[in-house]
Specification:
It is a single chain. By secondary structure, the chain is an alpha/beta fold. It is globular, with a radius of gyration of 22 Å. The chain has two domains: 150 residues, P-loop containing nucleotide triphosphate hydrolases (Rossmann fold); 92 residues, no CATH class. The protein has eleven helices and 15 strands. Helix content is 30%, strand content 24%. The protein starts with 5 loop residues before the first strand and ends in a 9-residue tail after the last strand. Helix 5 crosses helix 6. Strand 9 and strand 10 form a beta hairpin.
């Protein structure tokens, strides 16, 4: 069996606030295999982007290890980390903020080659043009500035910039959330095609569960900085174990006529509260429809353990809440889809 491209081991990030030290990322373990697409899903503020920025060394972690093909990124000095960045790239959510408005499309994609001293001028220009052609930018558009492209085209340029160095892993930080639905599908299909052509691995930060199920091979569900469930997409989306995963999936609309088939919506109480570094029970217990008020949930934090082949959950009562609770007939019409 192949070794992981990326291994995250016991990664933690703590921030100091007026209320004390809080966990933003809490003892996260994750392994990503070559050619795989792994999704990170969860509510806003759950730690998805902080985790990604830790992997890139844009945020300094409190503890843990990040291994890229066995190299611990957290121990590298500046020069060594700069060399590693050729193998590890990111596509940001907003291309308007990530692309230099003064540069042409070709210059934007060529810049990483210049920074890393790859090739001569003519070779770099040819390589940038080739990569832009792969994402659908024509030769006639190479000298255009970002404002002369649509939002979807700008994101294609950002993808070309990330891939021009032929990295081993690309972090996709909600790369389609700012695009129209029809354009989202085009960009997703482009990313999948490029993955097959260039043999690249993706870590996909995404809040849309439908997209995660369609695009990702495996999915990690984060809540308040911790992984609550991890598994392959088909299993996790059809037989989830953790109540939080179940509640997220209950909010996903199903394509069926109103009144004929409805899924019962599971509405969580309250809002996520920051997790302190003090000992505590399950972080989800105050909002959990299964564990709220149960003594073991209030007092003991569950470990992330494998309950079925390849499916992990951090829950004292995994599988107790049905994920696909569907009701039929007119009596179901009072529930939100």
């Amino acid at each position: 069996m192949a070794d992981p491209v990326l291994s995250v081991r016991h990664l933690s990030v703590d921030f100091t606030t007026d209320d004390g030290q809080l966990h933003a990322v809490d003892d996260v373990n994750l392994a990503i295999m070559p050619g795989e697409s792994v999704g990170l899903v969860g509510e806003s503020g759950c730690g998805k982007s902080t985790l990604a920025r830790c992997i890139l060394r844009l945020v300094q972690p409190t503890g843990g290890r990040v291994l890229l093909d066995g190299d611990d990124l957290l121990t590298l000095n500046g020069a060594d980390m700069r060399r590693v960045r050729r193998r590890l790239q990111i596509v940001f959510q907003d291309p308007d903020a990530s692309l230099d408005p003064r540069m042409s499309a070709r210059q934007i994609v060529e810049e990483p080659l210049v920074v890393h001293g790859i090739g001569g001028r003519h070779e770099r220009r040819a390589r940038a043009a080739e990569m832009l052609e792969l994402v659908g930018v024509t030769p006639a558009q190479l000298t255009r500035k970002p404002h002369e492209f649509s939002g979807g085209q700008r994101q294609r340029i950002a993808v070309a910039r990330a891939l021009v160095l032929h990295p081993e892993l690309v972090i996709l930080d909600e790369p389609i959330s700012a695009l129209d639905v029809s354009i989202q599908a085009q960009v997703l299909n482009l990313l999948r095609r490029l993955q097959e052509q260039l043999h690249v691995t993706y870590l996909f930060i995404i809040h849309d569960l439908v997209v995660a199920e369609y695009f990702c091979d495996r999915v990690a569900v984060l809540y308040l900085g911790a992984v609550l469930e991890l598994g392959d997409s088909e299993t996790l989306f059809h037989r989830p174990l953790h109540p939080y995963t179940v509640s997220l999936l209950s909010a996903v609309p199903i394509p069926a006529p109103v009144g004929e088939r409805r899924r019962k919506r599971i509405v969580l109480r309250g809002e996520p509260a920051p997790v302190s570094v003090e000992p505590r029970g399950c972080r989800f217990e105050p909002r959990c429809p299964v564990g709220r008020g149960r003594d073991v949930c209030r007092r003991q934090e569950p470990r992330l353990v494998e309950h079925a082949a390849g499916q992990w959950a951090a829950c004292h009562f995994p599988g107790e809440l049905s994920a696909l609770r569907v009701e039929h007939g007119p009596e179901a019409s009072g529930h939100g889809a």
